[in-house]
């Protein structure tokens, strides 16, 4: 059973400056959720706070009744590409195999079934032909597909992706969004930090719109309105302008 995620009054600060202030929302299973806001709005910070990767000043995050430390094996996280060391000497299939570790354990040697599952995940993202390539030799879109394959290898129920569509080719973006839709249809909960407003209506069911504080959260039809977007981006935006990539 996949429990709802409930974020209650979460605040985060860096060096005494509040980056996220008193944010609350909740979403149930089978949702593809976009996290929107201008640069510096606290989108990535909010996601990292939800995952316990950075310290919260206050607030609570629950998966059903459980806290993050009880749920890590059921959560997959794909960080921003800019935060990954692409010079690390590892080949593609071993990168994906790391996704099996949360359930099998770091100290246990991967079994044949684990390796076969990792290759199956590579096939799902169309990257099986690159299994023995160094991760740093791939294009941005190919790298993003591999990290999505690693997330799939975890067999998680909750997926968190930070700007997965930045700097990638159109075909990779199509592969990734189709997989995220499939996860949603399987009842998973998928959070995506996103910046391209022109894709919002076609990509997401629900939105979290923030600019340090929560502007609005809920269905796309409710949140993706000119008054909310103008407030978040601190300039006048019309419905027509929201359909144009920013």
UniProtKB/TrEMBL annotation:
The keyword Endoplasmic reticulum does not apply. It comes from the Bacteria. Residues 5-237 form the ABC transporter domain. PROSITE patterns: ABC_TRANSPORTER_1, ABC_TRANSPORTER_2. The keyword Nucleotide-binding applies. Keywords: ATP-binding, Nucleotide-binding, Transport. SMART domains: AAA. One of its GO terms (molecular function) is ATP binding. Belongs to the ABC transporter superfamily. This is Metal ABC transporter ATP-binding protein.
């Amino acid at each position: 059973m996949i429990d709802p995620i409930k974020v209650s009054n979460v605040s985060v600060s860096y060096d005494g400056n509040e980056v996220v202030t008193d944010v609350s929302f909740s979403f149930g299973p089978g949702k593809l959720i976009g996290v929107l806001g201008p640069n510096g709005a606290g989108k990535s910070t909010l996601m990292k706070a939800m995952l316990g990767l950075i310290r919260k000043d206050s607030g609570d995050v629950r998966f059903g009744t459980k806290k993050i430390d009880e749920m890590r094996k059921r959560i997959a996280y794909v960080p921003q590409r800019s935060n990954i060391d692409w010079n690390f000497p590892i080949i593609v299939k071993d990168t994906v195999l790391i996704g099996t570790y949360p359930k099998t354990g770091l100290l246990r040697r991967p079994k044949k079934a684990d390796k076969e599952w990792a290759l199956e995940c590579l096939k799902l993202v169309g990257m099986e032909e690159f299994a023995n390539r160094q991760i740093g030799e791939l294009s941005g879109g190919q790298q993003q597909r591999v990290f999505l394959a690693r997330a799939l290898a975890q067999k998680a129920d909750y997926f968190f992706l930070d700007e997965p569509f930045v700097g990638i080719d159109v075909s990779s973006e199509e592969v990734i969004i189709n997989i995220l839709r499939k996860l949603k249809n399987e009842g998973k909960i998928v959070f995506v930090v996103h910046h391209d407003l022109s894709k919002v209506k076609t990509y997401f069911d629900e939105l979290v719109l923030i600019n340090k504080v929560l502007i609005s959260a809920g269905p796309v039809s409710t949140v993706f309105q000119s008054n909310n977007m103008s407030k978040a981006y601190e300039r006048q935006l019309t419905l027509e302008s929201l359909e144009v990539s920013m």
